[in-house]
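step: validate -> pass
step: tokenize input -> pass
step: predict -> running
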Amino acid sequence: MLPESAPLQSPIASVPTPPTVDVVGVPISRTDYTAVVEWIDEMVRARLRGYVCVCNVHSVMASSDDAALRAALAGSSVNVPDGQPLVWAMKALGHHLDDRVYGPELMLRACAHAVSAGQRFYLYGGHDSQALAQLELSLCRRFPGLKIVGRYSPPHRELTAQERDRLVRAINDANVDVLWVGIGVPKQEKWMASMRPLLDAPVLIGVGAAFDFHAGLISQAPRRLQIAGLEWAYRLGREPRRLWRRYLKYNPRFVVAFCRQWLAHSRR
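step: predict -> pass
step: emit ->
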């Protein structure tokens, strides 16, 4: 078991968070890469605690069926608009955004900043331990001087109480500043929400497929497809067996749900 002195609640962050826009019932932050990296920096400096969810159509719509996921998104410090359709939705509601905050790109920008800031990173997730080691190697080669002070690829099941306690001790003993989580939606959001009170690391960030992208296991969609909001089609073509149900279920539901929201907004 964890020692009795382990914190039961995380301190309330006093670092200002960006304003949010309700998109189909989920608060999405109106922010950009620079603002998010600066927020991470301030949280680390102040040793306050929070977590960041990288949101797309899948996570937003899945939360309507999953109360724990919805609570995790509602309780996060920042929900960045990772999916291009969320950016379009926010613009349609009258809010200006220059670009989305794409999880894999956010991770790279945070790594570049961490080298000069001396921040200490921990990697949790990945397909397996070998893939996670490849991710660490890739990031350290790309960003010389990056401090990755630990990594753990969990089994594809819930951790036992003993495994969880050992993990918490290892992360806290490593004096981590930013913990990157790559175990996919909705696991990573619910994991961050449940583990947030136990971990001393100021910032947890769930970036899902970014781990596989930067480890070189999966290719990213070309930029032109990302801009056109067709990244889902590219990924579906690469992993049809795993992803077809997700996109068939959630994409049409998002279109219908947002059209209803936009019509109500227009009437007001």
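step: describe -> The chain has one domain: 24-160+167-218+226-267.
step: cleanup -> pass
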